[in-house]
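Structure tokens please, single chain.
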Amino acid sequence: MSTQSIDRRKGRDEVSSFQKWLRNNRRVLTSAAFLVVMLIAFTLANPSVFTQFKTYRAVMIALPISIFLVVPLVFVVTAGEIDLAFPAIVGMASYGFASIIDVGGNPLLALIAALAIGLLLGFVNGIFVVQFGLSALIATLGMNFLLRGLINIGAEGFSIALPEIRGTLFHTLLTGTTFGIPNQMFWALGFAIIGFLLYNFHKFGVHVHCVGDHPGSAQEMGINVKRTRIMVFVFSGLGAAFAGVFSVMINFVWWPTTGDGLLLPVLAGIFVGGTPAWGGIGTVLGGVFGVSIVSFIETGVIAAGLTGFFTQFFYGIIIISSLIGHRLNGERVR
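Here you go.
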């Protein structure tokens, strides 16, 4: 075989591999492209705001909370389930965290307690859905109301201020700044990387995909379907606990409403990021890009000179546009 033939064959293989990579990652790339285009549009609308680092830093202060939530929720949706209880789990875990510190407890102990609360509540959600056969939509919605009610009963409407954690080593490590970037962003990205590896390269991620695609076939393959379905809710509870802890650390105060207002933006971020609602497929990185898109909308709308009344309108426009882009960019797969 001549050298030219070998080169041509090598070139075709490289093109084929690149096309395969594009096809396998089209949802992530679409989400990333949509984020870039949106930021460019906002920059053209108001260059004085979106060419300054402090604008992005302001968004990165609260964005990690959504990242902690969206990563495990991609697992939940891929498994063919839905979790609407995570806002209340955020509130309950952060309530436990703030209460322990308020009585003089060690912040590290409070963190462990908050994570335990999140894991336990996620496990309870999984038991309701898997063992009792309840609809995930209804069961987790009911848990959301139940937990929020318990929070209101326990707190009686009072907040918990934690000024004593300001400037401590614990606070600096979790929510200080490094090179001008909030530390919580690094923690959230680390959590996203772990989620990405679990989702794409660990057997747990493989099991989640199989269960979401066809539970019966997954069972025949030897996968413990019930345990996998419960574990995705446990993972969701863990992410909600982290989100609750960082919410308190950022604001130095816990409110009974902590976690409220996160439901729709985070769910929107999942679907904007390219994880479809029918299960079996999804993307963790796309979810991170999705919540980033949602997080920048309000800042961009205000910076463009519009009032806050336009925010929800643009939420709808951008969410629908990105979903249409995903639909046109890839076929429906089960």
